[in-house]
Design a protein that fits this description.
The protein is mostly beta strands. The chain is built from two helices and ten strands, in the order H-E-E-E-E-E-E-H-E-E-E-E. Strands 6-5-4-3-2-1-10-9-8-7 form a ten-stranded antiparallel beta sheet, covered by helices on one side.
Length: 158
C-alpha cells in the first residue's frame, strides 16, 4: 500500500517539476561542434561543456554564473545575461505545450520536440547562429548541490 501511495504522489507531480539530465551537442554553421551536459530542475539550469578549455553555466535565482572548467574555483557572475540559457529555461516552462517558434532576447528560436525535452533547438540572432541537439534525456532526481558553485560539484551518473 505504501508503494502505491508513493507512486501516486510521484505521478501526480506537475509536469514542470520534471528534473532532467541530457547530453547536448552544439553545431555551428562552420562545422564546429561542442558537447556537454544540461541539467534542468524547476527554475534552475546547468549547462556544462566537456571541453576543459570551456566552462559551465549555472542559472540559479535568475542569475547566471560562469565556472571555468580548468579551475572550478574561478567563478564569474554574468551581469547582462542577454543569453540563450535563461530562454531555454523559460521555454521549458511551457512543457508539454511547446510552440514551434519563439522570439526571445532578439533571437529566433525554433524547436523540434522530443519526448521529455527538446530534440533540437535552432537559435538565430545577429550574434549567434547554431543548433543544439539534446541526446539521451533522462528523468532523474537532481540534488541541489549540482546547482551550486561553491563548491562546484561534479556530476557522476548512476
Amino acid at each position: 500500500m505504501k508503494k502505491i501511495l508513493f507512486l501516486l504522489l510521484i505521478c501526480a507531480q506537475p509536469l514542470q517539476s520534471l528534473e532532467l539530465v541530457c547530453k547536448f551537442e552544439e553545431v555551428y554553421p562552420n562545422g564546429e561542434v561542442q558537447q556537454g551536459n544540461v541539467f534542468v530542475k524547476k527554475d534552475k539550469l546547468r549547462y556544462e561543456y566537456y571541453n576543459p578549455e570551456l566552462y559551465a553555466l549555472l542559472y540559479v535565482n535568475n542569475k547566471l554564473f560562469l565556472i571555468n572548467n580548468i579551475d572550478r574555483n574561478q567563478t564569474q557572475f554574468i551581469e547582462n545575461h542577454n543569453n540563450v540559457i535563461p530562454s531555454i529555461l523559460e521555454i521549458y516552462e511551457d512543457y508539454p505545450n511547446f510552440k514551434d517558434k519563439y522570439s526571445k532576447n532578439n533571437s529566433e528560436i525554433t524547436l523540434e520536440k522530443g519526448t521529455k525535452f527538446f530534440k533540437r533547438i535552432s537559435i538565430k540572432s545577429h550574434q549567434l547562429n547554431l543548433s543544439i541537439f539534446f541526446i539521451g534525456c533522462q528523468e532523474v532526481l537532481l540534488d541541489e548541490q549540482y546547482f551550486n558553485f561553491n563548491p562546484f560539484k561534479e556530476y557522476v551518473p548512476n
